[in-house]
Design a protein that fits this description.
183 residues, mainly alpha, Actin-binding Protein, T-fimbrin, domain 1, 0% strand
């Protein structure tokens, strides 16, 4: 087997079929349509049209033109437009996939991760009524302490600071090793 086939087999092995099914179900719910069951997940997404339509549902008008025909560069342009739009929508750059990951089917797992990141980002947009995908992101929980509380915290010496009253790491106090000399 060639090296390229070995790499592809390893990449396919990392794919999570359940996550892909969940992402596709979310896409279907957002668009209100279904896709043929015999069509592969990556083939549904490959030309970027479905992803662009999803983005326009989440944020109307975010992608002005979706290419439906033309060569591979037009289809890759759809994917690029999708990635640009999700960045503006709030998906962090570290969660985005590269165009080749999808179009050339190099890393479909990364594509699924990006779809989940987009689904999580929808929680932050109150204008979106749902459905959502993935867990709700944590919200900031700012805590304000009084000066007395801060001063009390500075006066306390934790065990990490070295004040363990003679105990060793196991918590035993005063235990010593016995060294027995041979005769």
């Amino acid at each position: 087997m060639s090296l390229q086939r070995q790499v592809q087999a390893k990449m396919f092995g990392k794919r999570d079929q359940e996550q892909e099914a969940e992402a596709l179900a979310w896409i279907c719910a957002v668009l209100g349509e279904t896709f043929p069951e015999n069509m592969a997940y990556e083939d549904i997404l490959r030309d970027g049209q479905v992803l662009c339509r999803v983005m326009n549902k989440l944020s109307p008008g975010s992608i002005k033109k979706i290419n439906t025909g033309g060569g591979q560069f037009k289809m890759m342009e759809n994917i690029t437009n999708f990635n640009t739009a999700i960045g503006k929508y709030g998906v962090p750059i570290v969660d985005k996939f590269q165009t080749a990951d999808l179009y050339e089917k190099k890393d479909i797992n990364q594509v699924t991760g990006t779809i989940f990141a987009l689904g999580r980002t929808t929680y932050k947009h109150s204008e979106w009524p749902g459905p959502w995908l993935g867990p709700k992101p944590a919200e900031e929980n700012v805590r304000v302490f009084s000066e007395e509380t801060i001063a009390a915290g500075k006066a306390h010496i934790g065990l990490q600071a070295g004040s363990n009253k003679g105990a060793n790491q196991s918590g035993e106090i005063g235990s010593r090793r016995m060294i027995i000399q041979g005769k």
